[in-house]
Amino acid sequence: MTKWTATDIPSQRGRTAIVTGTGGLGYFDALELARAGGDVILAGRSRAKGEQAVAQILGAVPGAVVRFEELDLASLSSVAAFADRLRDQHDAIDLLINNAGVMVPPRRTESADGFELQFATNYLGHFALTARLLPLLRAGTAPRVVSLSSVAARSGRINVADLNSEARYVPMAAYSQSKLACLMFALEFQRRSEAAGWGVTSIAAHPGVARTDLLHNAPGKRSMMGIARSLLWFLFQPAAQGALPTLFAATAAAAHAGGYYGPDRLSETRGHPAPAKIPDQALDPEVAARLWETSETLTGLTLGGATPLPMRTVGS
């Protein structure tokens, strides 16, 4: 594969894209999609940060079509409200980038719905968002869903009996599980899209080791991880570079349905987009099916179905 960069993004004119997460990778995803002519919706929790990101994009790309919408992925009611607004505003969505995330809070924290925060934000909220936006995606032109995984997925394990990390909370283990779940969701979505004729392409990507604020935001700047992120910044590639595998998966004709893309150098920690190695545990179809079914139960949504189901909590 040639050294693909953001200048290789094909024209996105006439395409509507949603990117979750207003900083770091999400910001650069939105910036480059807007630069390529796309109609971009940047979605996140903080209106102040979202509007600042939009202002920065407009400063870099005068005339860009970009706006902010509030979305808290740790709240299923916020996901539902966001999807309702989008259905009122749009007849179709062409691209959904499930990017937003939190990383290794030192203490177990629960979402508004009672789920462990990393599992809720990184995975379950995006599952619910994709389910609610599927009708708009199916109406799109060559629609794609890109789900963000991580090199941490290599050490992840799906504990279906304790997805909520109630029995034991280890911050990095919970993060790795959530990112493995994102990858397995992307692969399972593609299988189900093909089987059901949804016409939506699902692809996964990861950024390698990128210079974002994830480690500053959750564990904190004074944590060991936060200090390492600050002092050893040169070990992290720039966020703009880390966004390239996602942008490749989202726009490149060479990106394959059901594929997984990451950086091409130093064990996929930095470089240009290339096919990434899928961990063996992500290829277990039985675990993938159980994770999918459990996710439908926890969110009360049948992905591809017509009506929401009654929502249940973990353990019920």
- Chain oligomer state: single chain
* Poorly predicted parts: 225-234, 306-316
Q: Count of DSSP E strands?
A: 10
Portion in strands: 5-15%
In order across it, which strands form the biggest sheet? 3-2-1-4-5-6-9-10
Give the end-to-end Cα distance, rounded to a whole number of Å. 48 Å
Number of domains in the coordinates? 1
Mean pLDDT: 91
CATH architecture: 3-Layer(aba) Sandwich
Q: Would you state the CATH class?
A: Alpha Beta
Going by CATH, the homologous superfamily would be NAD(P)-binding Rossmann-like Domain
Major beta-sheet overview: 8 strands, mixed
Shape: globular
- CATH domain topology: Rossmann fold
Please give a structural write-up.
- By secondary structure, the protein is α/β, with parallel strands linked by helices.
- It has one domain: NAD(P)-binding Rossmann-like Domain (Rossmann fold).
- The protein has helices at residues 24-35, 47-60, 76-89, 117-138, 171-196, 214-217, 224-231, 239-242, 244-251, 285-299; strands at 16-20, 39-44, 65-70, 95-98, 144-148, 201-205, 210-211, 237-238, 260-265, 270-275.
- The longest helix is centred in the middle third of the chain and has 26 residues, at 171-196.
- The termini are far apart.
